[in-house]
Write a structure and sequence with these properties.
Distance between the termini: 23 Å
Structural class: mainly alpha
Number of strands: 0
Strand content: under 5%
Number of domains: 1
Radius of gyration: 13 Å
Number of helices: 9
Largest sheet: none
Length: 127
């Protein structure tokens, strides 16, 4: 499903910050999927601690502070995704190759700034 793929790319982009690059974060893709961290419905349906444990179990072992920070960001992204039908909006913007609109849609999410947007665009095939 394309929505999950967009969300997956957003999660990878969120993780690829503070010394982690896209290659390293993307290397966790299978374990992130296995832990349910690429599905906004699964994330939203779990308690904070369950998501934090899942992130660590997926191989994101960067210490308690970073796990806490990124758990907050992933939960915020899942909530934003579901409440605002973000997948549909992103699909439309991507179909029109509207980078400005993609940025406008992503930047309100906690933890999303220029680096995360740039990472997301690279993963989605924008140059």
């Amino acid at each position: 499903m394309i929505e999950t793929d967009c969300f997956t790319d957003l999660v990878i982009s969120l993780l690829a910050v503070n010394g982690w690059n896209l290659e390293k974060a993307g290397g966790l893709l299978d374990t992130l999927r296995g832990q349910g961290l690429t599905d906004p419905s699964v994330i939203s349906g779990r308690l904070y601690g369950e998501n934090a444990k899942s992130l660590e179990a997926a191989g994101y072992s960067r210490g308690e502070y970073m796990i806490s920070l990124l758990t907050d960001r992933i939960i915020a992204a899942a909530k934003h995704w579901r409440e605002r039908n973000l997948g549909e909006e992103l699909r439309r913007a991507e179909a029109h190759r509207d980078v400005r609109r993609i940025s406008e849609l992503l930047e309100p999410i906690n933890g999303v700034g220029k680096v995360v947007v740039s990472n997301y665009l690279l993963l989605r095939g924008f140059k």
